[in-house]
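ok so heres the complex, two chains, lmk if somethin looks off
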Amino acid sequence: MQTIDLDQAATTALDPQVREAMEPWLGARAGNPSSRHRRGVAAADAVDRARAQVARAVGARTEDVVFTSGGTEADNLAVLGLARARATRGRELVIGPTEHAAVRAAAEALESEGFTVSHARTDTAGALDLDHLGGLLGEKTVLVAQMLVSNEFGSVYPTAPLARLVHARAPSAAVHVDAVQALGKLELSIGELGADSLALSAHKVHGPQGVGALVLAPDTRLRPLVFGGGQQGGRRPGTENVAGVVGFGRAVELAEALRAETWEQLTQLRARFSAGLARLDGARLLELGAQTMPGICTVLFAGVPAEVRLHHLDERGVAVSVGSACQANDADLSPSAAAVGLDADASRRMLRFSFSRHTTTDEIDHALAALEAVGEELGSLGG
Amino acid sequence: MTGAAAIGAPEMVLVRYGELALKGKNRGAFEQALVRNIEAATRLIAPVRVERRRGRMAVFGERRVSDVARRLQDVFGIKSLSPAWGCAVAPEAIAELAARVLADALADFPPEGPITFRVASSRAEKRFPLSSMELDRFIAERVLPDHPRLKVRLERPELSLGIDVRPERAYVFVRRLPGPGGLPVSTLGRGMCLLSGGIDSPVAAWLAMKRGCRVAFVSFHSPPYIGERSRKKIRDLVGILARYQPTSRLYVAPFTEVQTTIRDRAPQPYRTVLYRRMMQRIATRLARREKCGALITGESLGQVASQTLENLTCIEAATDLPVLRPLVTFDKEEAIDLARRIGTFEVSTRPEPDCCTVFMPEHPVLRGNLAACEEAEAALEVEVLVDRAVRASEKLEIASDV
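and the predicted structre for the whole thing:
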């Protein structure tokens, strides 16, 4: 049975062109970019080209791209590295209402170093509450982290006005933007977003798993998390994952070239999915905030817990997720769900369907048919 | 929450160029060069359309206009620039847009205290119902009541709200970003820069570009005494400098034979001066090929042993081209500050050897004399060595990464 993967916000399949770009660096051309011979220098050039590809996609300078092991490390490096570099000026952090666990847990880890963490919130319409945020900012605020697109709800949070507010009210603060789910969907410009750092991940845009980047605004001070041979200007030492970053560079280049059509395709898929859901009993597509990234559809179902529905769909070859896959084992209510006003009961009956440019209308139709069949099956059990 | 007034991305970038306007009958050529350089600089960001307007240019981008604006801060000849938002040519529409642009710009100021302010309109559309002064007043009366902190001052205000009324559309702008000044690259001829991998020569190239020179590069390489990472360092430096001119041509000239010959046949104290004379000869030949009217070096008086007035005289005598030394009176700290601003400092300070460090004399001559140089060179077959190095030079085209 072929799987219909509607869990594309969790990961995406490697694009064949990305694989092709990576292959020489896994085999015939493998070299350590720090080596002094020609083979090593060729690898260093390949890393630099990938760095330029990533930089161009987000309007940054090549030298301000720091490759990491993925989005989680990029978020960790930003939260810990930016806050610690500013600790002499204050120890107050503010994080967004629906941040990824990689940001939230890193901020909590700083509490043991004397930092305090405040949480921003959304207004009743699901948009960022900037008036409330303004009240959390002050001279001692050193970091504000706000994601651009929610991995759980697809909500787009405009960070530019937030960054303006932060830079005016909290002159010591850096603004970190987790753009993992925005890459390849929204036009990203670190300057336009007002961000001091931007977290990206390769495997969300048909690149390899285990590669990401933290992109910095020029002259942003950052404390490293790991120590070693001084690679990447000492900001993230360790031998670079050459094949991985080459794949990341190519994946980003492709995603950026296809961005407008991808958005259009995702919009059409969402419309088709939404129309199909409307014909089912007890399913409601969530729309939070002013704008939603169309590739993430969060649906509230009446009846059985989401976990049960997920496995029934899986039996029929449809892979979906409960909330964010990265915290799928967490039995507690997602703090994000609470932040956008969902109660524990609602959040336990919520499934996330997510699409990428590889998703087809046929897959949407099959998934809708599976949903209908599962609904009847579960309904007949009195769920 | 006035700071949150959303205005979206700007529509165009208004570019001001100071010195160009003074250049009399060359002005047309200068403006054409600036347009070409703007198009080249933004090539990797978005396609742009440049409109020339009396003493200014309007740069329209298909997308990423904020990134285009930041990129233009690296284009020589530009004095300042402003991202601008557009609206219909009607007083009401302009007032409404002006209020939003102003609220957005106010977010950059500390939350309290007075800010001096003025409106400055210009009007290319003469059928517009209000004169410039009337429009200034109309807009001021509309925006001031919402912002009690703004105090009108016509001379040197902290915040100037610009309005440009065109026949097809009106534009509003506030922020003024500095450009790098100087003259458009390519308007003052070409130069060949001798690039060493140190801090100074990239800065010298950049300063020559600033005054309108298009710069080609030559670097000397001594394999197998010097490795591939030294070559990469040079390529990376040229790549960063390529951010400031459309593309860069780099010649990598083999220098091992020259150095071993001098080591074997010339007096040791003169080695460094003789290396440099040979470099100037090779660079001069390549300069002619590239139609370059001058050599450019990072030499600074007294900075190292080879850079005494006497030694500079000996070195310069090996070329008949003028030698531009933009850093000749710079302190090291001044060169470092500029290298940081240009973006070459991090690369220049990578600890890679260059050919100057090969076979260094123990006691280099401090005050060389030309007759001694010429006498030493009589034993060297200078023309043959130069010819071989020129012919074996590798030519690379290096484009900007941004």
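quick notes: Chain A has two domains: 4-12+259-380, 16-257. thats all i got rn
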